[in-house]
Amino acid sequence: KFFYSLSVPGVIPIAFGTNRSDYEAVAPPESFIHVTDFSSHKELAEYLSRLSSNEKEFNSYHEWRRSYELDVPYFRAQCDFCKALNQRKLHGSPKPIHDLNEYWSMGKCFN
Q1: Is the pLDDT of residue 14 over 90?
Q2: How distant, in Å, are the alpha carbons of 3, 85, 93, 106 from that of 102?
Q3: What is the CA radius of gyration of the chain?
Q4: Which of 57, 77, 96, 108 has its CA 20 to 30 A from that of 12?
């Protein structure tokens, strides 16, 4: 979910659950807000409220997009799968698959 949030333009992920340093090890710099940066939920809510009306500060969380490109193959696969399903709708009804081994075997493409 974290990387999906990063992939959506205009979204700033709010991270929790593991240490900030764990997120920093894999995420672009200054790309997320971590709940441990705040002493309470109220303080976090107040910050988010201020952030929503401060365009310069809000945009600072997206500066990384100028220097980094997010490539998460998992999400690309989801998009490809969705595209294939929608293309099937355009090309008639789907064909039943009786043998999954045969369906997934090399050299066959059902897109």
Answers
A1: yes
A2: 34, 19, 20, 9
A3: 21
A4: 77
List Cα–Cα distances, 105 to 14, 53, 102, in angstroms.
41, 54, 5
Residue 110 lies in a domain: no
Instruction: Please write the tens of the pLDDT for every residue from 16-40.
Output: 988 999 999 989 999 999 999 999 9
Alpha-carbon distance 10 to 6, whole Å? 9
Amino acid at 21: S
3-state secondary structure the chain: CHHHHHHCCCCCCEECCCCHHHHHHHCCCCCCEEHHHCCCHHHHHHHHHHHHCCHHHHHHCCHHHHCCCCCCHHHHHHHHHHHHHHHHHHCCCCCCCCCHHHHCCCCCCCC
80 and 41 within one domain: no
Global pTM reads 0.63
Q: How far apart are CA 15 and CA 17, in angstroms?
A: 7
Domain check: are 50 and 95 in the same one? no
